[in-house]
C-alpha cells in the first residue's frame, strides 16, 4: 500500500506493508534515520516523534494510521536556516547527551514539553522525561538543557 503524510513540512509517500510501524516507515521507507529504535515496546522513547504536534512513540504506531497527518522527526527540528533549534543548542551547550542514542527522542519529548509548558519546574521536567530512558547520563545534564532552553527566549522550539 502507498502511505502519504507530511514529514517535516514536506509531503512524502512510500510503498509499505500494512503492518509497518511508523518508526520503520520513517527509517526504511523515507530514509530518515534520526528516529532511533531501542526497544519496540514503548519503554525507551528513543523513537519519539511528533504527530500533529503531539509526542508519539513511533515504534508502536502503524504508518498507515498516520497517513494524511503531519509528522515531525528530529531531522525537522533545526531552524529553517539549518542552525540548531533552541532545544538542540541547549542539549549541546549543557552536554545533555553522551552516546547520543536516546538524544533524538529526548529532544523531541523535551520540545513537546516546552511547547505545552514553556516555563516548567525541574520537577515537571523530570516527570515529563520519565517515558524516555537514557542509560548514560543520569539525566542531570538533560534536565539542565531543558531548563536552559525554557529560559533561552520565546522562540518556537519545534517546527510544527
TrEMBL record:
<dbReference type="InterPro" id="IPR001041">
    <property type="entry name" value="2Fe-2S_ferredoxin-type"/>
</dbReference>
<keyword id="KW-0408">Iron</keyword>
<keyword id="KW-0001">2Fe-2S</keyword>
<dbReference type="InterPro" id="IPR051452">
    <property type="entry name" value="Diverse_Oxidoreductases"/>
</dbReference>
<dbReference type="InterPro" id="IPR012675">
    <property type="entry name" value="Beta-grasp_dom_sf"/>
</dbReference>
<dbReference type="Pfam" id="PF00111">
    <property type="entry name" value="Fer2"/>
</dbReference>
<dbReference type="InterPro" id="IPR036010">
    <property type="entry name" value="2Fe-2S_ferredoxin-like_sf"/>
</dbReference>
<keyword id="KW-0479">Metal-binding</keyword>
<keyword id="KW-0560">Oxidoreductase</keyword>
<feature type="domain" description="2Fe-2S ferredoxin-type">
    <location>
        <begin position="1"/>
        <end position="77"/>
    </location>
</feature>
<dbReference type="InterPro" id="IPR036884">
    <property type="entry name" value="2Fe-2S-bd_dom_sf"/>
</dbReference>
<dbReference type="Pfam" id="PF01799">
    <property type="entry name" value="Fer2_2"/>
</dbReference>
<dbReference type="GO" id="GO:0051537">
    <property type="term" value="F:2 iron, 2 sulfur cluster binding"/>
</dbReference>
<dbReference type="InterPro" id="IPR002888">
    <property type="entry name" value="2Fe-2S-bd"/>
</dbReference>
<protein>
    <submittedName>
        <fullName>Carbon-monoxide dehydrogenase small chain</fullName>
        <ecNumber>1.2.7.4</ecNumber>
    </submittedName>
</protein>
<keyword id="KW-0411">Iron-sulfur</keyword>
<dbReference type="GO" id="GO:0046872">
    <property type="term" value="F:metal ion binding"/>
</dbReference>
<dbReference type="GO" id="GO:0043885">
    <property type="term" value="F:anaerobic carbon-monoxide dehydrogenase activity"/>
</dbReference>
Amino acid at each position: 500500500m502507498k502511505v502519504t503524510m507530511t514529514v517535516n513540512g514536506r509531503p512524502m509517500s512510500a510503498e509499505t506493508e500494512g503492518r509497518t510501524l511508523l518508526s520503520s516507515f520513517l527509517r526504511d521507507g523515507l530514509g530518515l534515520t534520526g528516529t532511533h529504535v531501542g526497544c519496540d515496546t514503548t519503554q525507551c522513547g528513543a523513537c519519539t516523534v511528533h504527530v500533529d504536534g503531539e509526542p508519539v512513540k513511533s515504534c508502536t504506531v502503524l504508518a498507515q494510521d498516520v497517513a494524511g497527518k503531519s509528522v515531525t522527526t528530529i531531522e525537522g527540528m533545526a531552524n529553517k536556516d539549518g542552525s540548531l533549534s533552541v532545544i538542540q543548542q541547549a542539549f549541546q551547550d549543557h552536554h545533555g547527551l553522551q552516546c547520543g542514542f536516546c538524544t533524538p527522542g529526548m529532544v523531541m519529548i523535551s520540545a513537546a514539553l516546552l511547547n505545552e509548558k514553556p516555563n516548567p519546574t525541574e520537577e515537571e521536567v523530570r516527570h515529563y522525561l520519565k517515558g524516555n530512558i537514557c542509560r548514560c547520563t543520569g539525566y542531570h545534564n538533560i534536565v539542565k538543557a531543558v531548563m536552559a532552553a525554557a529560559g533561552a527566549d520565546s522562540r518556537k522550539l519545534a517546527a510544527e
